[in-house]
Structures are given as structure tokens and as C-alpha cells.
Amino acid sequence: MALLRDSRVRRVGLRRLAICTVVVLVATFGLVSHAEGVDEIAGSETSPGRSPLFRSLDSGRHWTRLSTGLDERAVGNLAIDRNSPGTVYASSNDLGVVRMVRSTDMGETWKVLAPTFTFANIFDIEIVSTSPPTLVVATFGVARSTDGGASWTVGNAFMGQVDDVAIDPSDPSIVFAVSFDGIIYRSIDGGRTFVENYTFPGPALQSVAVSPVSSDVVYVAGSMGTFVSRNGGRTWNPTGIDTRAGDVACVVPDVATQDSVVFGCYFGGIYRSDDAGARSTQVFAVHPVGHAAASVYDVVQNAGKPREYFASCYGVGVVRSRDRGQTWTVFRRGLGNREIISVAVDPNIPGLVYAGGITFD
Q1: Are 77 and 356 in contact (CB under 8 A)?
Q2: Which of the 8 DSSP states describes residue 260?
Q3: What pLDDT sits at residue 7?
Q4: What are phi and psi of 5, to 5 degrees?
Q5: Start-end of H helices in the chain
Q6: 6: helix, strand or coil
Q7: CA distance 295 to 264
Q8: pLDDT, averaged across the chain
Q9: Smallest Cα–Cα separation from 200: which of 215, 180, 217?
């Protein structure tokens, strides 16, 4: 997000890619509920190649494959530098080879960034600041770069597998991280060092988010449920979202309204709440055979146009809302049969959206 949620990509990151390289799920889709429409849900692919990274210049209605400098089978995370229009980072996995790439021309060309170590996996990318260009990566521990990804320092290995990181939009020196072991960590030096903040009595924390409106409001989510803190992470209370249909994969606090929040769920669709999750309503669900709803891996809000949201739904495509998440439209035109698992929107360039996914070629 640079410092807003618009650049985040979820971030179950390449952990979900590792699963998908082994298992290919083929489903027949039925009812589309709480959606305003479906735009060519079958989809047709208009640009050849193998890369599963796509770009739309018309807010998701049409998609073109981005392939110059890319030859990957999976793109799991995206991060947009909102202070440098046209700059986007992506993580990829090609048969177990994990890389990070960057484009500075709206995805036309890509450069492979040369880390000083080999990423075992990348679960999330966050941009801490633009000057100097500082990034943090959720991996096994947290990696940090102060030169736009050219070199990296890997630290905090005691944290184990870190599934997500979040920057405080009001103070980028504050960084939260959540681990697969159910522990929340907090940094006060921009991600250089972390200390344990809170431990939940259950594993697999998958998402953390700080409200752009109030730094006191922080959300975490995982297999044990979704929790909110109203004092900057000192204490936590469960939200009222019903996750029986699937774990919450991502949490997106509204950029303008403190207690408005959107949740994306595995096999649970998309939920929306106006009271910090105390009560929530399912606002989107496409129902694959045998499941309550499609898996939503990523949801982002357009900070430049706050009523607009995008989400990636495995087996469905990209969905868009233009009424703060009340109703959604499905788009697949140009995506073909690629499974879309990540999405990012550039708040500085109207209509520019990226989508990453998996190819089984």
C-alpha cells in the first residue's frame, strides 16, 4: 500500500501457491449472490504466453497479460508504490524458484531484483517508505530492503513463518507482523526488529491490518477467528463475523471511515461491517459445487477512489464493487482460465489494476 491498503496482496502468499501446484481444483459454478452482474464469467484470453500476471486499464473490464521479462507459473503478491506512479512489485514462484520483480512503467517491462539471499517463500510485500525506497517482506522471519529490493537483510528468524505484515499508515515506524504460530509481533523501528506483542491460543494467523483512520484500531485474522484491538494492539476482542464457512484470509479497514471494514474469506465469500466487525453481512458469494462460497484470497480498496474495491476469487476471477462493498460484479474478460489469487489497484492512475494468479501449463 505504500502506506495504505490499496497495494496489499494477501497474503497467504506463496503458501497458497505451494498447495495449488499440487492440487488443481475444477468446479462448476452456480448461483451468484449479492452481485450486481457477471461480465463474461467464462472469459477469453486475448494475449498469449504463460505468465499469470495481468493488467487492466479500465478498472477491471478487460485484461491483458504482462509478459515482458516474466516467465513465471505463479504470481502471489503485489505491492504498489503509491508515491511513485506506475511502480509495482510482485513476487513469483516458478517450480519452487521464488523471485521478486519490479516494474516502473505500469507493468510494460519487469526487472528481477537480486537479493543477497534466496527467499524460501514470500507471503507478503509491504512498502514502508519511498525515500529511501524501503520494503519489508514476510517470509521465515521478516526481510528488509532499503534500496528498492536490490539487496536484503534477513532478520528476526525467531518469528518463524510470518504470514503477513502491516504498516501503520499514520506512523511507518510501527509495523505489525503475524505468524503461523498465532503470535502478533510489533516493531517500532520500521521493521528492523520485532518484539512479541500478543499470543493467541491457536495457530495460523493469516492477516493483520491497521486502520488508516485511527492507528489504535488493528485487526488480525486466522483459523481461530477475527479479532480487533482499539488500543494499538495491547488488548484484543473477537469480532462477530461468522467464519464457519471458511477462515478469514484478509481484512481491509476503510480508508475514510474508522469502523467500516471488509473481510475476504476462504470458501466464505466477502463480508462487510460498519461497526468494526461486531455485526457483518455477506455481500458476495459465488457458490462452487460442494462449497458454501468461493475462496476470496485478496481484497483491496482504491485509496484514490474509496467507494471502489477489487477482490480476487479463486476459480471465479476478479470482482469489483463501486458502492463500498455493497454489491459486486465479476470480471474475467482476458483472464482466460487462469486462477486469480491477488489483485492491486494504483490510486494515482485511474483505471489501472493488476491481477496475479496461477498457470498450470
Answers
A1: yes
A2: -
A3: 36
A4: -70, -10
A5: 13-20
A6: helix
A7: 8
A8: 81
A9: 180
What's this model's pTM, rounded to 2 decimal places?
0.86
**Residue 290 CB neighbour total at 10 angstroms:** 9
Question: Pairing mode, if any, of strands 309-313 and 296-301?
Answer: antiparallel
Half-sphere exposure (CA, 13 Å, Cβ side) for 331? 25
Pairing mode, strands 328-331 and 35-39: parallel
Segments of the chain scoring below 70 in pLDDT: 1-50, 69, 71, 114-119, 202-203, 243-246, 286-294, 337, 360-361
List Cβ neighbours of 279 (8 Å cut-off, separation of 6 or more): 240, 273
User: Which residues does residue 125 pair with via DSSP β-bridges, in sequence order?
Assistant: 137
At position 208, the amino acid (one-letter code) is V
Q: Are strands 88-94 and 74-80 parallel, antiparallel or unpaired?
A: antiparallel
Per the listing, cell 477489487 goes with 310
The three-state secondary structure class of 38 is strand
| Burial of 210 per CB tally in 10 Å (0-12, 13-18, 19+) | buried
List, for residues 294-338, the tens digit of each pLDDT value: 688 999 999 989 999 999 987 788 999 999 888 999 998 888 767
Closest CA to 275 of 318, 228, 321, 314: 228
CB 331 within 8 A of CB 65: no
Please state, in angstroms and rounded to a whole number, the distance separating the CA atoms of residues 133 and 184. Answer: 25
SS3 state at 358: strand
Task: Give the count of beta carbons closer than 10 Å to the beta carbon of residue 96.
Answer: 12
What one-character-per-residue DSSP string does 138-204 give?
Answer: EEBEEEEESSTTSS-EEE-GGG-BEEEEEE-TT-TT-EEEEETTSEEEEESSTTS--EEEEE-SSS-
Q: Which three cell numbers stand for residue 138?
A: 514476510
Place of cell 471494514: 261
Contact 276, 261 (CB under 8 A): yes
* Residue whose grid cell is 485509496: 303
Distances (CA, A) of 180 to 47, 160, 195, 206, 223: 38, 8, 16, 7, 10
